[in-house]
Amino acid sequence: MSRRPFLAGNWKMFKTGDQAVAFIEEFVPLIGDLTDRDAALAVPATALQRAADAAKGSPVIIGAQNLHWENEGAFTGEISAGMIVSAGAKMAIIGHSERRQYFGDTDEWVSKKLSAALAAGLLAVVCVGETLAERESGRTFEVLATQLKGSLADFKAQDEKNLILAYEPVWAIGTGKTATKEEAQETQAFIRKELGSLGLPAEAIRILYGGSVKPDNAQALMAQPDIDGLLVGGASLKADSFAKIVKYGN
Ligand code: PGA
In the chain, what are the domains? Predict the structure, then answer.
């Protein structure tokens, strides 16, 4: 089954609204018409509306980096799926390892956030990944199986078009240490097998790789059969570098 490549940038806590608009104005002409792949940018909440306005009429999908599962309420500092949609965005990253590590996101929260995102019609990018200690102690597959089971606990198979998985080994994020294409492939094949054993249409679900992706390793990673896209942090902050990644192979 052919899965449409999905190239996503994750800006993390970088860029103001003005900077987001300037990036998009430079980026859109660089990528041109995207007929055979998707490009997305997860921007800070304060830049969502302006980024979505700037990307209107272009193929670029704008998304948030996190959300709360309630529609509204006394949750200081949080934003809901409905608020993300009303800002004009169409996607949300859920359960990024930095959320899990620094802000206490659990698999149970990820599952609730995923349900809320899908109910609001957002495309959800759910992240999983092992730490260095977990990989070195041979527990990678066990950790991923647990994360997948918990994070997808309430996921219904009919929503598979709006679910994207991202495998991001924690030891490869922002470290300059990319998983080798073989390591990434082996792990992502495992993730696909697990999706199948959870009763999901695994062949239809896109699985991204993330962790120190750069213009010069994008193509080799994308050549792996179970790598359907890339989730890019640092290298998505400059329009020319992210455009090169989006246009890998061209
Ligand atoms: P990086 O981040 O590309 O800077 O390693 C990836 C991510 O955290 O999504």
Answer: 6-246 (3.20.20.70)
Radius of gyration in angstroms for the set of CA atoms belonging to the chain, rounded to a whole number: 17
Q: Of 162, 88, 99, which Cα lies nearest the Cα of 127?
A: 99
Q: Which pTM was predicted?
A: 0.97
Asked if residues 14 and 227 have their Cβ atoms less than 8 Å apart, the reply is no
Q: For residue 68, indicate whether it is catalytic.
A: no
Q: 3-state DSSP call for residue 212?
A: coil
User: In the predicted model, is pLDDT for residue 1 greater than 70?
Assistant: no
66 lines ligand 1 (CB under 6 A): no
Mutate to test the pocket of ligand 1, among 6, 100, 231 (most ligand atoms within 8 A of CB): 231
Q: How high does pLDDT run on average in the chain?
A: 96
Q: Is 144 in the pocket of ligand 1 (CB under 6 A)?
A: no
The helix/strand/coil state of 18 is: helix
How much is the pLDDT for 176? 83
Q: pLDDT digit string (tens) for 148-190?
A: 999 999 998 888 899 999 999 999 988 888 889 999 999 999 9
Q: How far is the CA of 190 from the centre of ligand 1 (A)?
A: 21
Q: How do residues 4-58 score in pLDDT, each as one tens digit? A: 999 999 999 999 999 999 999 999 999 999 999 999 999 999 999 999 999 999 9
pLDDT tens digits for 207-224?
999 999 999 999 999 999
Atom of ligand 1 nearest to the CA of 210: 6
Ligand 1 within 6 A of CB of 239: no
User: Smallest Cα–Cα separation from 205: which of 243, 139, 158, 172?
Assistant: 158
**Which of 130, 134, 168, 194 is labelled catalytic?**
168
